[in-house]
């Protein structure tokens, strides 16, 4: 009988991360649902201490993320401190956590990393006049941090061909994240979690892909 798979989800206290953790647990995995208090992805000591307490890992879901809000993220009025904070969580946080857990993932028979990105990171959609992103103002640092996360995903995937390493676009969901930006959205956290759960559980997963639950997302 095969061993129960172990998954770590960051930012799992609420929103899409909580829904990913619940979904993986419901599918029989042992899930480490890490909240910020357990594992602050911006803090070297916190991440190293948490990693030192784990002895196995099959699936890492880098979900923790922030928008940074709208203030200081408008082109022409950019506040570098705000944008640095966004990058610290959404990009450097992912590198910090991934590097800390790679030694365990490399021992897994079926290692997977799922980076929760965003459709707003798509350069194609942002420059396609037929797509609503082309005309819409989005906070400056947030989509840039997620576009960088996508490139990070590809670089890790190339470096570790034995792993499945992908980025997801959860779609705009009515979590606190959206409410804090003044958005009212019908799509639920569970809807946004579905693609990460699929990548974590499917047979023959892709690697170096950017996907939503509707299929590949153009980079
Ligand atoms: N909602 C959307 O429309 C949408 C669309 C595309 C992509 N996403 C992405 O989906 C992911 C989850 O978003 P969400 O909508 O679920 O947002 P959310 O409801 O605001 O939840 C974000 C989670 O990330 C955690 N977090 C933030 N900074 C952290 C840190 N430094 N260390 C550890 N955990 C931290 C939060 O912890 P606390 O509770 O302690 O703050 C919270 O659990 C994010 O990466 C986001 O960019 C969301």
Fold and architecture overview:
Helix content is 42%, strand content 12%. The model has no long low-confidence stretch (mean pLDDT 96). It has one domain (6-216): NAD(P)-binding Rossmann-like Domain (Rossmann fold, 3-Layer(aba) Sandwich), CATH 3.40.50. The protein has eight helices and seven strands, in the order E-H-E-H-E-H-E-H-H-H-E-H-H-E-E. It is an alpha/beta fold and 219 residues long. Bound molecules: NADP nicotinamide-adenine-dinucleotide phosphate. Residues 10-11, 13-17, 35-36, 39-42, 63-66, 89, 93, 116, 118, 170, 172-173, 175-178, 189 line the site of NADP nicotinamide-adenine-dinucleotide phosphate (NAP).
In brief:
This is NAD(P)-dependent dehydrogenase, short-chain alcohol dehydrogenase family. By secondary structure, this protein is of the alpha/beta class. 42% of the residues lie in helices and 12% in strands.
Key traits:
NADP; NAD(P)-bd_dom_sf; 12% strand; oxidoreductase activity; binds NADP nicotinamide-adenine-dinucleotide phosphate; 219 residues; seven-stranded mixed beta sheet; alpha/beta; globular; Rossmann fold
Would you give the CATH topology?
Answer: Rossmann fold
Q: CATH class, anyone?
A: Alpha Beta
The helix/strand class is alpha/beta
Number of helices: 8
* Bound molecule types: NADP nicotinamide-adenine-dinucleotide phosphate
Question: What is the makeup of the main sheet?
Answer: 7 strands, mixed
User: Which CATH-level-2 architecture?
Assistant: 3-Layer(aba) Sandwich
Helix and strand run? EHEHEHEHHHEHHEE
Task: Estimate percent helicity.
Answer: 40-55%
């Amino acid at each position: 009988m095969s061993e129960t798979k172990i998954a770590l989800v960051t930012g799992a206290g609420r929103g899409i991360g909580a829904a990913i953790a619940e979904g993986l647990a419901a599918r029989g995995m042992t899930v480490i649902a890490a909240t910020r208090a357990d594992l602050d992805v911006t803090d070297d000591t916190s991440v190293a201490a948490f990693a030192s307490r784990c002895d196995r890992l099959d699936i890492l879901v880098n979900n923790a993320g922030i928008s940074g809000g709208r203030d200081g993220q408008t082109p022409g009025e950019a506040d570098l401190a705000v944008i640095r904070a966004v990058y610290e969580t959404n990009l450097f946080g992912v590198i910090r956590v991934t590097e800390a857990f790679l030694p365990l993932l490399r021992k897994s028979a079926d290692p997977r990393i799922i980076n929760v990105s965003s459709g707003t990171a798509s350069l194609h959609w942002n420059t396609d006049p037929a797509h609503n992103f082309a005309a819409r103002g989005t906070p400056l640092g947030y989509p840039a941090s997620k576009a960088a996360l996508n490139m990070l995903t590809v670089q890790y995937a190339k470096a570790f061909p034995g792993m499945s390493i992908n980025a997801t676009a959860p779609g705009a969901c009515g979590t606190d994240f959206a409410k804090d930006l003044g958005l009212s959205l019908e799509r639920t956290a569970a809807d946004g979690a579905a693609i990460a759960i699929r990548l974590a559980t499917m047979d023959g997963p892709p690697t170096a892909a950017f996907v939503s639950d509707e299929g590949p997302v153009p980079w």
